[in-house]
Structures are given as C-alpha cells and as structure tokens.
Amino acid sequence: MKSNYDVIVIGSGPGGLAAAIAAKENGADDVLIIERDIELGGILLQCIHNGFGLQLFNEDMPGPTYAQYYIDKVKDHGVETLMDTMVLDISPQREVFAINKDLGYLDLQAKAIVLAMGCRERTRAQILLPGARPAGVYTAGTAQRFVNVEGHMPGNKFVILGSGDIGMIMARRLTIEGAQVERVLEILPYLSGLTRNYVQCLLDYGIPLQKHRTVNRIIGRDRVEAIEAVTVDEKWQPVPGTKEIIPCDTLLLSVGLIPENELSKKAGVLLDPITNGPFVDDRFMTNVPGIFAAGNVVQVYDLVDWVTEAGFTAGKGAAQFALAEKLETGEEIPLKAGENIRYVVPHKLDKNHLAEEQVRLQMRAITPIEERVLVTVEDQNGEVVAKKGEPYARPGEIITLAIKPKAYEAVQKATSLTVNVRKR
Prior knowledge:
The chain is built from 9 helices and 25 strands. It is α/β, with parallel strands linked by helices. The chain has 3 domains: 1-120 and 256-327, FAD/NAD(P)-binding domain (3-Layer(bba) Sandwich); 123-253, FAD/NAD(P)-binding domain (3-Layer(bba) Sandwich); 330-424, no CATH class. Strands 1, 2, 3, 4, 5, 6 and 17 form a 7-stranded mixed beta sheet that branches.
C-alpha cells in the first residue's frame, strides 16, 4: 500500500464515511479510511432500530441501511480502506502511526487528517457507582451489541440507570425480546435523551421513568440480585427515607457519552472542557493546521444525519487544505455561550469562509424551557444578527440556527458573537 495520502480519515462511522466521500468529491485523489473494526459503518451496524435518515433522506431507516448507503458511496468513489487496524499515534505534522496484523507497523503521511473516532459510553467507574461488583452490570451500548449482533440476552430482569437515548431504545428492545424492564431511573429532573424516544420506547411500552432517582447501591455477590434506588435533591444528595430495593439481575448504564479524543490530544489538538471534543472552526478544522474533526468526536449529536453533515463539511475542508497545503483564512470571530446555553459548535467563524456558504450553529440549553423560546446570535454590542424561534429548549435536544447570507454583513462587522436562548 501507499505511504502518502491526500486525506486520511480515522474511523468509519457516519462522520468518517461522509468525510471520505466529501474529500473525494472536492478533489482529493488519494483518500484512506483507517478502521479498527473488521467492517465499515461504526456503531450503526448494531443500531437495528429505525430513526435514521429523517433529515437527509426524509425516510425512516434502520442504522445498517443508513450506513450501507454511504459504504456503497465510499466504494464507488474509490476510497481506499484499511480495516482491523489500530491507530497508535498522530503527529502535528499529520504523520499517522498504526498497526495491522498483516501489514505490521505502518508509518503514513497525510496532507490532511479527519478525526472521526466517535464517542464512548461512561462506565460504572466514571460515575462512582457504589456497592458490590457482581456480574450483570453493563453499559447500554454493550447490551445492544449482545442482543442485536451476537444474539445473546444479557439478563432477564432489568433496571436502567439514565434516560439517554441508547438506554431508552434498549428498554424497548429488551421488552420486545421478552425481558422485564422494571424501570428507568434518571438522576436529573429532566430527560437526558430525545423526547421521541421517551414516547416510543418507554411510554408506548409502559416502562416507568423516575426522575430525581438514582442507584444508591448494587446488591449481589456473583450476579446482580437487586439495586437500591434513592431519590436525590437538587444537589444530587440522597433524600432520607426514600430508599427502595428493586429486585433485578441486570443493571444497564445509560449515563452519557464521551467523545473519543486520546489520539487528538497526542496530535496537540486542544479540547473544549465542556464538550470534551476539539475546538473547531466552521470548517471543523482544529487548532492544528490540516487536522479536522467530524461527528461525535467533536460533540455528542442527537441525530446521525447531523453527524453525516458534519463529516461532509470536515471532508471538504480537508480536501481544500490538502490541495492548497493551507486554507485561506481571514479574521476569526469567536462564538460564546450566553444565556441558558451550555456550549456552541463551531467555536469560531472565519470571515472569509462565511462569505462562501451558509454556516449552521449547534448548541445545547443548560436547563429546559417548556414554552416558546427565541434563540439569538448577538454581537459584542448586543445587536441581534441572527435569530430563530423554537417551541421549547431541552438539554437533551440540540438546537440549530443557520447564519444565512442576509446576516453576513452584520456578522462581518462583529468582533465576537454570543448565542442566547430566552423565553419569548
């Protein structure tokens, strides 16, 4: 195989596939995808439920079908793929070091790199869950792979901690397979996943959701026998007199996802402590020239369609960088999280790039507002340069706002922009 490429994409989930396609379509001749698994598609291969493609195709697809569409396009575009290969290190000079059981140790050079490693689940250790350490404690994604790919039921009687999307989807899946899902516990006072999953996966199947509740203790020696649930106050402290023993043989954790950025840090990429993903501009380029990031490695998305769109943007930028050896950049405008906004992606806008095409901002609210809200982008003087109405704002659902051409003149005059969400 070659040792020099225009663009190397690390990861073949929806973001990586889209980045490789976009790189090819924008003039990059030699494009390589490196994937540690034996198949392209990433996490989509185990997501056999519907809900994919609604934004991009106006269709309701299962995950493998959605993935196959882009896998076919990757092959049609002549993108080279290297499977069952682990990337060990990346240098700021865009050198990629990897290992493959057949090819051995690989030293590859890229003109541009797209980081598309996705995200991983929080584990029991990361949330400091107390109690015994018996068998029967899994992350929701691990259970999803057991059931959907390996045909193995991890238990019979479940409690799910966390109302993340994977946990709610698995509550439905396990019920369909004949298991008993006792309830879903959520430490927060609001849902942490999409409302549609709450309706379709919990309400439709009669599975209770209890907010302000968490697991206080795991009970069992060899196998989980029960968990002790407890109500918590606004500071997440146990409320006296609210403990309850819930018999079960399996506890699933759906307590958040973390962008996978160990490789990013090795390359000198700076990470946002709020998102745990790279700081990126509106082309999804990181602080390291020629290194781009796409999809859940930047922020944890609600919809795979948005991951794909981010991949297209990053792949196009990577191709442009590879062909020109640099990008023509102008003055940067930092984007700040304002009232009731946790973070904004991208983190900054390039004035030169802004004139070329529409830029979409994505953000999450800090606390839910269950009534109509107004999302605004304001300059350093408090002048509104872009705005959008929404029926509500919820932390579990990304808010999007496009900066359209009619706003370009006002944005060009700004030295900084702040995004706010307020009641209308």
